[in-house]
Structures are given as structure tokens and as C-alpha cells.
Deoxyuridine 5'-triphosphate nucleotidohydrolase (Pedobacter jamesrossensis), 144 residues
Amino acid sequence: MEIKIINKSAHPLPQYETAHAAGMDLRASISEEIVLKPFQRLLIPTGLFIELPIGFEAQIRPRSGLAYKHGISIVNAPGTIDADYRGELKVLLINLSDTDFKIVNGDRIAQMVVAKHETVIWQAVEELGETQRGEGGYGHTGKA
């Protein structure tokens, strides 16, 4: 699939790093180093603008290495970029560790997965079909 993109950063376009990767890394496009303090959240620009086809979204997800090694995540993970959004892609990072985390221009800060989605048309009814699970939720499995 082809997607229109404007790149105002000094970095290459997002790309798949392995043959079967689902996500492409997004890089910070910043003029000076940013220090993300413990439990601080900041919106980090990427310099990228995209035009998704109708029926698709871009999911912005944490990078597993940053999460594991440094406690860096995304507040609203996964973030959703809708097909009608034309602004700059920005990543809402949060530092869940107890130490400062430094971000420099070009750092890989998140990953983006483009996914198809459906548009729902609700059908109001008085009852739903029965299942073995029924109304069981939140920790119900494995209990007698």
C-alpha cells in the first residue's frame, strides 16, 4: 500500500527493520536534547505528516527495548492517528522509571503500525446471544 507522507525532519522515512516486522520506528525531530524526568510526560515531534486512506489508522506504540531497558512508554498506548488527521505526528512519551531519560534528535522513540479498521453501525436490540462465558469478566476464568 502507498501512503502520502511529508518529511520535515532530517531523518529517513520510517521503514521496516526486518522482513516481517509489523511496525516502523519513529524518530524524534528536535532541535535540542530533551530530558524526560521520572513520571514526566512530553509530546515529542517527529517532523512527519501523513495522509492515510479512509478505513485505515496508524497505531503509535511503545518500543519494547525502551520500555524494558529504560521504562519509557506512551501514555495513551496505542495512540491512534485517524485518516482525516493532517497535523504532525507527535509521540506522547512518559518516563515510568526513577531516573532521567535523555532524548536526542534522531532517537527512535516509538513504532507505528498501519492497520485497517471497520466502521461500526450499531443495531439496537433488547437481548444478546448466549455464550458459555456469559457475563463473566475480570478474573472469572479458572474459577469454579
About this structure: The chain has a mean pLDDT of 95. The first strand starts at residue 4 and ends at 7. The chain has one domain: 4-116.
